[in-house]
Predict the 3D structure of the following.
Amino acid sequence: MVVIRPRPRSLARQQQGFVLAASLWMLAIIFMLAGSFHTFVQRKVEAALQAKAAISAKLDQHSTAQTLSYMFATQRVTRGGLVPYRELAGSHRDAEGHVLSDSLGDEIRLDGTWYRGLGGVFFSLQDEAGLLPLNSSVVNRLGWLLEAHDLDAIKVGQLLARLADYTDANDLIRLSGAEAQDYAEVGLALPSNDYLRTAPELRRVMGWSEWLADESLNLPAWFAPKRSSLINLNTVPADLLALMLGISVAELEGLLHIREERAFNKVADFQARSGVRLAWSEDFYRFFPSNRIKLRMASAELGQLQVIGIQYTARGLLGPWLVDYNYTTDQMDGDRSSAERAPGPLFDAQEIKE
């Protein structure tokens, strides 16, 4: 006969306590896993939302650039800038049928002024004729800018000579200049011996990167890879214009107001209405925009500045516009915050077509 003895009560309690503890540990582990999974999912959701915002911002930038290019291909440009609306047929021609170039006063300015584009995009249009030339044979046109920043004559001559050596097609070294051997000795990339393609390439010229490093200056926005040394006084950026003319902030504000009301049409008109005497001869000034525009775009989502050099070719064989350069930079050359205060058009691509 088998006698089944009951287990001691203390042992049963111990087993129940073990099961309870194990259950609690399992629940804790499940909660920890659930929390970790929730955090993982949250991070993935946030990353997806950020990616979506970045893609949306890029699409807005692309749409803004294409809309502006379409406008340049179909709208009229005056001395004051790009006309942002359709004009009545024949309203921009005189009695003899000639196209009028006088400014209207409400154009999209081509002097680097910031506007609001599509979505959260800010943009500015800069006529390259209003900037300082990097590929002009008249390299001394940059000398005054160097001298204005307290560089002595020897340093100015050195920088200009090195720029000329970098861009010319030979390996002859100018006095105070530098060629391939000099670059190799200090571990710098060899000179291209060709025209500069973009303004930032100026940093590759020996000696220039140190001068351009001054963040208090708006230097990257002042240069253009153009060959012509002519300067369009209607599209020179405000800060460069003040430095070029040697005028005060108050005088600059008055000059900009005059220019925005009605763009200048010749040197005599500029000097008469502004009261400012020009230092260079009349041959170095122009008053109608060129067909080369530097488009800058920025958005809070991307945190970068996109710069596109566009050449508008109207009825060209390769299309109505060509892209000369396209790059992004972390350096926000220009005051993007002013875009929120600028009277820019909130345009829509469909509205422009209509």
Confidence is low (pLDDT under 50) at residues 339-346, 348-354. The chain is about 35% helix and 15% strand.
